[in-house]
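Continuing the series of single-chain predictions for the mutant panel. This is the parent chain; the variants come on the following pages.
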Amino acid sequence: MFIISSYVEWSFHEPYSGVYNFEGQADIEHFLTITKQENMNVLIRPGPFISAERDLGGHPYWLLKEKPSLHLRSSDPNYKKYVKRWFSVLMPKIVPFLYGNGGNIIMVQIENEYGHNDLGNCDKEYTLWLRDLMLYYVGEHAQLYTTDECDSSFLKCGQIPNVYSTVDFAAIVNVTECFDNLRQVQKKGPLVNSEFYDGWVAFWDSPRPIRYTKDIIRVLKYFLETNVSFNFFMFHGGTNFGFTSGANTNGTTLDKSGYRPQLTSYDFSAPLNEAGDPTEKYYAIKQTLKKANFPTGSTPKIAPKGNYGTVNLLPVVSLFDSVARRLNPVLNDVPLCFEDMDINHGLVLYETNLPLIEGLNKLPLVIKSLRDRAIIFLNNVKLGTMSRSYSNTTMELSITGSNQKLSILVENQGRINDKRFLEDRKGILSNVTLGKHILGPWVMTGYPLNETSWLKTQNIQPNVKPPAFYRGVFIVPQDNKHTKPLDTFLDTSGWTKGVAFINGINIGRYWPAVGPQITLYVPAPYLVPGLNTIVMVELEGASKDFTVKLVDKPRLDG
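Parent structure:
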């Protein structure tokens, strides 16, 4: 039996409080209808927390701007209020597809890996409330279940009475030990690994993790021999388009080192790669299933890719230019975080005039709480960068005289999604000091970078330097062999760090200066026959010749 496991991302469907989106790619009913037509049963995972290496674990950002502050994944009445409201909109769309109602959803997950709670707060009141809320909609028409990692303490914390417990793990663990731990909380019934990891999440400035096919096949054979139920995670790799990628942390507090932003690509070294093409891992898995007399479908063909060549870009406008400041500035005595200015993602420019300092002075500039990365400018001249990831939130400034303007361009690199320190607000969350001076007041300008159509009316400015918008056009040809656009990959080699748009669609963050991801996946539906547009928001350094390439092969290990 073929089963598809799918998250429902709250932030995707309720991007603003009380504003819902179920159109286009967000049409969950259409998606479920297709799965039924393809004779696939479904494990649906509505959260509210999903993790999934997505920004804030799938929570909408506006939860972080609620006053008084609420606590995510807890029995906080304010959090429960919004979860209940969200489910009152979502679940009626899902109920008709439940197995007991003649549909193909056989299991509904409650939360996700709740037992992995690094702060030691195992809030049973919350998980019992969530179970009862889910039961109100699901009843006995599908099986409720939980998923937790194979540590016995995680499974015990995540277990909910009268809800089926499953485990998740990779091929590198002790499999029998994991199932022994599962049996401590799920005394009977089939053993289920609801997330069998065949790859792993990748991070900027780190090599992509390797999960060897031989290990996956070894454990797969064990599953088949012992009648274990399992679900590959991921079977088809994906992409964190736009600003949807999240971050992990292994730090001791929100502002200590250990913050690790995730790649735009979620290829995951999966059996089907980011573009949906079969890999050697796919063929090995299929061969193993065939030998075990397990039914397998047809092998997908490797789709042709477009090699559309070199694209010349030209500088259009600096982020410092008034025309690029699409939002009204916010004035305040102290810096405000993104959420307090109702800004979800992108950038915020913090500006202040420095106090009069006599003589030439070298003074430390300190941002105690920076989330996540800042470029520091004095009178619009770049001095350097600070980064939460590397705990370098101090730099020395040489200051003399008056009329000195300090500008700090802060980038949200993705909110934490890995259970610990989930309430990850962005921007500057402390005073900024220069020596003994507390700086302010501040003028703060947000750049959510959610659309680029306004650039069409702007003329080229050859002398503009980053941070700036760059624009170029390219042709997708039509011929007898390919009458429609093909998938392609945007090669950002030579550029430094920023965000790329194709035909107004944000295809994600790029950062070839540190890698490992060099190319961004561009699906064919994002392209049109004929003239297409690229916009690059380059923060630090454009390529010397202002060019990018559209190539037919990805580079994810640069």
